[in-house]
Design goal:
Blueprint lengths: L1 E5 L2 E5 L5 E2 L12 E4 L8 E6 L6 E5 L14 H7 L8 E7 L7 E2 L5 E4 L4 E4 L11 E2 L3
Antiparallel strand pairs: 1-2, 3-4, 4-5, 5-6, 6-7, 7-8, 7-9, 8-11, 9-10
């Protein structure tokens, strides 16, 4: 087990359980290793904490909780980055933004594709889409 000091305090983690972003995230290309933080409250949101830069963390969610028809299917190059085949699970996640006015938005234009089998994730930019990077939650 290892520990890092984060905004959540001291966090202990098992390096074997790290979530690996081989290409980093948009705007954070050098951040590759993340811890999925345990949820203290029940709900659809959760945090991932960077191990590479302990001052960086993101709130994520499954966008289908809010947008049931939202779907993204990984292409062959994305499957290669995730090291998965057509038979492997691939989950779609969105980065959540909670601004000071509390009008929560989801980034549906740049979803995260996550392979639980390989514990790998990539963030992709959807082209030719009407989805926005700051999509308000439905009312």
């Amino acid at each position: 087990m290892k520990t890092i000091q984060t905004r959540f305090g001291e966090v202990e983690y098992n390096p074997a359980n790290l979530l690996n972003f081989p290409a980093g995230m948009i705007g954070f290309p050098t951040l590759h290793k993340f811890i999925v933080m345990p949820n203290k409250k029940e709900g659809p949101l959760f945090w991932i904490q960077s191990v590479d830069e302990p001052g960086v963390a993101f709130v994520l969610t499954d966008p289908s909780n809010f947008f049931p028809k939202y779907q993204v299917v990984p292409d062959e190059s994305e499957k290669n980055l995730l090291q998965i085949t057509n038979d492997d699970d691939c989950y779609i996640l969105s980065v959540v933004t909670v601004p000071p006015d509390q009008k929560i938005t989801l980034n549906l234009a740049a979803p995260i594709l996550f392979s639980p089998k390989k514990n790998r994730a990539i963030q992709v930019i959807l082209e030719n889409t009407d989805y926005k990077s700051k999509t308000p939650l439905p009312t």
